[in-house]
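Hey team,

Filing this mostly as a record. A colleague (T.K.) asked me to run one chain through the structure pipeline before their review meeting, and I want the input and output archived in the tracker in case anyone asks later how it was produced. No errors, nothing strange. Just documentation.

Input sequence:
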Amino acid sequence: MNKPRKIRVAIVDDYAPHREELGALLKLEGFETHVVDSGDSLNHLMLDGAFDLVLLDLNLPGEDGLSIAYRLNKTFPETRIIMLTGRARGLDKLQGYESGADIYLTKPQRPQEILAVIRSMARRIQPTEPLNTSPSWRLSLKESALESPRADVIRLSMREAGLIKRLHLAPHQTLETTLLLKYFDLPATKEGKTLLIGKMSRLRLKIQPHTSGTPCIKAHRQDGYQLLLDIQIV
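Output structure:
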């Protein structure tokens, strides 16, 4: 039997007074509430599991809200997304809904009005502990292992497991070469890039025999690498 739990909500807003006020209101309502100021911070929170609902500002430092919504919708399709933004043009709303928003709210909105929208959406969410029935690849950070949909277990180094996690959480599952060099503590030189190519090739050689011929990691010339697998972090 699935174990009931609180509805898990994330507020992603770079304006501290607004997110803290909303966060306090939601906690009083009984939601498990987390407040962050960027997509990077949201990525760290999602290592502990998906959110039932994300309240998302669009104008954020680094990755913008539209990109975050698109990634959430692709990776965690059950997550409901409420966009809250000052962008009121029809085109902005269209882009918001196309990127994955369930509701698009324009500022200014009083906190109590936002809370009423969240209450309404929460009534349609049935929170349960996730079932391990997904056909996707499963990445265990604790075990440093990747399990294929056919239950093949691929042993990884801790650094390789961490890399797959970062690729999975990155926009479009793609990391630039500069970020990969930094992750592996390699110099931004020709020699460092050659060493990076070797590391990525070894990782592909571990995974590729278990993909039934489907590419697992794609190299983008001068731009980095993209993970092509549907990954679930457990």
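Quick notes for T.K.: The chain has eight helices and twelve strands. The domain at 8-122 is CATH 3.40.50.2300 (Rossmann fold).
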